[in-house]
């Protein structure tokens, strides 16, 4: 008995010492996983959010499986995302998974699933949506807390969210950076960035981003991986205390302390310009325009002495970040994705239902056969009682015939509805492709869709009744490995599943160069130059867009054709002044809120001027309450499809087209620039693509005249608003006493080397300024100086005291006594002088 007891106890000890079977198989005790979402947990609704995942396998067994983030475990995820992993014993691994989050998301959880489908490990992280009115500045450094404070670089009423991340956590796809307003890199080893991370930063800038790179003591590692983008190619450094010129870029009159600091030096790129130099001409701040974006190089370190104690540093950041060119209305991505679903569902010449006449003929044949014909035949043979059999029989026959006919009419082809916008710029190797893709199924089936050219893919959400967002397909799973794909999604017959793709393609071979000649008097702008189309397809309905308006070409631009253009455009003297990008002049669309949300204090969307210019006034159709009126003909449907598509990504915020001094060629094709792979042998495609090509442009004054920078060649920034209800310079409506002030900055290409005359323009009613004082900021004294208007214009000769960074001008209106409502219809400035 004792022997048996001893044997049992020994067996129990052996079993207790053995590791659990599932731990051996799945490696639960050896895997460590950590996840970081967005940028220090910050993300924007309706944009790709990067999840940076770090894995460590401290055991002796390898692990193969996948990482999964799914809505069932993370409230606010729009779809399931997964990526395969394989990690060796003792190895560490980092990867990025791109997901979609809604604004109410608070926690994101990821799971490691082994080959048996069991959860081997999991991790979670907290997240918070960046509100539409917030700015998101991401500061990248290898020493967190050692970066400059950018929080003051905001328009009045805005807040700034600053997110600090390490270099290794930068996304490796440009979609992961789309939520970022400013990317600031300082004291970071960018030489350690992967090729994909470097490409992501380059594409972020090219597609419209703002990159600020800092020199200072750590200029070498910080510039190592970013050399192709920088305006200065740093190759050495000097020690200097000559920073007095920085005061000219700040509203503060306090000078920088004469304390020595390290300045990075090097050669200036040909397409770059110096913003600030020291007294010996050494660049302190240089700028380079890359595509639609901008790169600023700060040669010193603002986070070191003597700059940390300089009162003017906040003003310097405001000037640097606000002095970039305005971003055109089409440059901020898909804003109204509910309209996007409407657009992909408009299929000219294709319908999910038979023609109305066919259905009526079928119904008439059914009624005639089951009624008069059936009665006549049964009466002739004297067997009317057989109607109890013939009527059900005929019903069954017609039911089967209707099913077979409908089945065959639908066909077996899957229909791909593709809407593409391709944006390109001179000098850029790649073009930006944004695309909406719809998959229309002839019958209920399951499909796979993949994009194997580096583009990102996510589902297109649709607004359903009750404000919820659903997809007509089953819950979607996006797999991310070497490429993105949607796997095993089912679609009901005649329903459509929608997707959004974003990536790059080789720059299309469309080019041109123009001279833009303006006169100091009058509103005529002369446009002289040529455009060339080297695509293999014609460019349909081409139009040239400038700030002065649109010039339509009278016929398609054929492959290989060069078209000479000499046109006069008459600009509207009341053309709205565009807002500075920092003013958040463009709304982001928030699916979870099911409406447009302005990223600024106001949401004055314009009268679709950009859409009108592209579509043409004769083809433009005003939207009714529930959208555009339905069209019947194939041509009308094609035009409606185009206009609806444009409304998904173009909004003239504050009524301004925001084209600056740019000249653009816009045209359409009926082919897609890329191909998607879908698991169906039979398919057809309905393609609509729009090309928006920025052309080379030279600004010139008319012979014998000085250069005249008009009001709409400036951008505006709201600095203070104590009393106004509408506070754009295109309309100021006072309800109380108080101040409203603006900064007007000329577009970078309109900065004159010499300004001989400053014009302050105020349009108002006869008695609207009785209790209001108008003041102009004196940058030398740091104070506002009262001025008296004679009519609507005040001309100031020798205006140097009133010119700030990049010839910026600040205007203040102070209503010192409130007596009813006062309205000022327009405030602006103009400058006359010469270019270098």
Instruction: Tally the helices.
Output: 10
CATH superfamily of the domain at 130-324: Class I glutamine amidotransferase (GATase) domain
- Percent of residues in helices comes to 10-25%
User: Regarding CATH, which class of the domain at 130-324?
Assistant: Alpha Beta
Can you summarize the main beta sheet?
11 strands, mixed
Q: What would you report as the Rg, rounded to the nearest angstrom?
A: 32 Å
**CATH fold-level name of the domain at 130-324:** Rossmann fold
Classification by helices and strands: alpha+beta
End-to-end Cα distance: 108 Å
Mean pLDDT: 86
Quantity of strands, as a count = 48
Shape: globular
Flag low-confidence runs.
Answer: 14-29, 464-474, 585-606
**How much beta, percentage-wise?**
35-45%
Give me the CATH architecture of the domain at 130-324, please. 3-Layer(aba) Sandwich
Describe this structure in words.
It contains ten helices and 48 strands. It is α+β, with helices and mostly antiparallel strands and 836 residues long. Strand 19 and strand 20 (430-440) form a beta hairpin. Helix 6 (337-344) packs antiparallel against helix 10 (634-649) and helix 7 (356-380) runs antiparallel to helix 8 (387-410).
Gist of the model:
Among the domains are: 19-128, Immunoglobulins (Immunoglobulin-like); 130-324, 3-Layer(aba) Sandwich (Rossmann fold); 363-410, no CATH class; 707-834, Jelly Rolls, CATH 2.60.120. Helices cover 15% and strands 40% of the residues. Strands 19, 20, 22, 27, 28, 29, 30, 31, 32, 35 and 37 form an eleven-stranded mixed beta sheet that branches. The chain has an eight-stranded mixed beta sheet with strand order 8-7-4-5-25-26-21-36, with no helix packed on it. Strands 11-10-12-13-18-17-16 form a seven-stranded mixed beta sheet.
